[in-house]
Amino acid sequence: MSDLDLLTQSLARNVKHWRSVRGYTLEVLAGRSGVSRGMLIQIEQARTNPSLGTVVKIGDALGISITTLLDYEQGPKVRIVPAEQAVRLWHTDAGSYNLLLAGTEAPGPLEMWRWLLMPGESSPSDPHPTGTVELLHVTEGELTLTVDGVEYQVPAGSSASFEANTPHEYGNTGDAPMRMVMAVSVPPVH
Questions:
Q1: CA 131 to each of CA 51, 57, 162, 179: distance values in angstroms, whole numbers, following the listed order
Q2: Interval 151-174: pLDDT, tens
Q3: What is the per-residue pLDDT across 11-39, written as a single tens digit (0 to 9) for each?
Q4: CA–CA separation, 155 vs 144, rounded Å?
Q5: pLDDT digit string, tens, across residues 1-18
Q6: CB-based contact 96:37 (threshold 8 Å)
Q7: How far is Cα 157 from Cα 181, in angstroms, rounded to an integer?
Q8: What are the strands, taking DSSP E only, across 82-149?
Q9: How much is the pLDDT for 69?
Q10: Which residues are CB-neighbours of 61 under 8 A, at least 6 positions away?
């Protein structure tokens, strides 16, 4: 990626970020900066390289420096995932489900999940790549965790970790719903 591409993407990310921080709509920022709404959309979508004058106007309207707007070394490192953007990948008619709450690359994929398993239900998983580790914490009920054919009981308040490169299954053999939070770390692809 060229320096110009990095700057264009950084500007796009930072204008969106600071517009959100200030609570400005595109129309408000356009009015405050004198930069058209259409140009702001193109900037936020990294589809244009605006003039220095345009960047100065946007920075002034947001109350931040050009350096901050173009910063790609120290850009935002925090990503908030609103509850409504959690992704449900599995569910049953009885009400069991899992939700992918958040994920990142650190240095390989790292995911955080919330699970609900209704009594008598289970979810099998094929082996993940070698080096994959799962951490889980049961918040309600009891999990029957089966790893490579061996069953482990994990009651509420307890946690477990395991290498997930063998077949495994999450089950609820109890008579109450089981809830857990789980993190999955997958090694990077080389």
A1: 47, 49, 10, 26
A2: 999 999 999 989 899 999 999 999
A3: 999 999 889 888 999 999 999 999 999 99
A4: 9
A5: 677 788 888 899 999 988
A6: no
A7: 11
A8: 87-91, 97-105, 109-117, 122-125, 133-140, 142-147
A9: 81
A10: 29, 32, 33, 34, 35
